Amino acid sequence: MTSATPATALRTPPAPDVVRVFFISDSTGISAETMGNALLLQFPDLPIERRLLPFVTTVEEAAEIVARLDAAAAEGPAIAFSTTAAEDVRTVLLTTRCTLIDFFDLHLRTLEGVLDRAGTRRPARLHGIGDAQRYNARMAAVEYAMEHDDGASGRALDKADVVLLAPSRCGKTPTTMYLALQHGLLVANYPLVPEDLEVLDLPEPVRRLRARCFGILTTPERLSQVRTERRSASTYASIGQCAWELDRAARMFRSHRIPTVDSSAKSVEEMSTVILQHLARASAPASGTAPQHRRSTT
């Protein structure tokens, strides 16, 4: 007679506690979130509850945050990522019993050592008047992207830094908006509808801009899934239609030597980086010196 399986062998290991994560900033918190999440990506199986705490600019607000962090730490694992700059605010935040990773202090002290001078430690420096030109350029790029989304306008199309081409729902619009908002690029996008895909010629509105075109592709399965959410049980969302459109688009891109990126396995940020790298290579001088794009990409 075989022995019974011990009860302990049948138990599923307990799920790890949810980790409460806080992103603290004296501005919007974008930097704290970006850097903090980059670290948290190394723990993909960890259940995380995120909270953004922006615009913490006074000692009183910092004290309230500390009370909140301490309460979270008393209930279970908690981590805070901070990019606050003001010394008095940071001093209060550092009194918390919660684990606090202070990006600003860590990196600023390193820079101060290398440069042999103290930083100003002023809050919200990223949005100061010295950044106005870049900020205005990015807002103008966003306006351009909105006007030229999905082939809506042909006005000033020749001013585009890049024109994204793809069948419907391949990821043109989010990539366009990211490149505009984060990098100040003038981006237009043009949908390849079935009528365009009947032939291999580029659609007439973008034909003269072939050198600035960039194609986006995906898998038929992924495209069908996305289209089904918009228009279920339709020819538009069928695997067959999606496969045909993607195949024809890929042929068009190859015929005109248009570079492409696959959106099925890449985030908007990754796709944008691929496009930026292509633009940098395309604008590199023949002498081999480092390429300089005419718009800031920092």
Question: Would you mind describing this structure in some detail?
Answer:
- With 298 residues, the chain is of the alpha/beta class.
- The chain is 44% helix and 13% strand.
- The chain contains 12 helices and 8 strands.
- 29% of the residues are buried.
Shape: elongated
Number of H- or I-type helical stretches: 12
Structural class: alpha/beta
Mean pLDDT: 87
Q: What is the topology, as strand order, of the major beta sheet?
A: 2-1-3-4
Distance between the termini: 71 Å
Oligomer: single chain
Our estimate of the beta-strand percent is 5-15%
Question: What is the CA-atom radius of gyration, in angstroms?
Answer: 25 Å
* Helix content, binned percent: 40-55%
Largest sheet: 4 strands, parallel
Order of helices and strands: HEHEHEHEHHEHEHHEHHEH
Question: What labels would you give this structure?
Answer:
disordered N terminus, alpha/beta, 298 residues, single chain
At a glance:
The chain has 298 residues and is an alpha/beta fold. Helices cover 44% and strands 13% of the residues. The strands form two sheets. Strands 2-1-3-4 form a four-stranded parallel sheet. A four-stranded parallel sheet has the order 6-5-7-8, sandwiched between helices.
Architecture blueprint of SSEs:
Elements: H1 7-10, E1 19-24, H2 30-40, E2 48-53, H3 59-75, E3 78-82, H4 87-93, E4 99-102, H5 103-115, H6 132-147, E5 162-166, H7 172-183, E6 187-191, H8 194-197, H9 204-207, E7 213-217, H10 220-230, H11 239-255, E8 260-262, H12 268-282
Parallel strand pairs: 1-2, 1-3, 3-4, 5-6, 5-7, 7-8
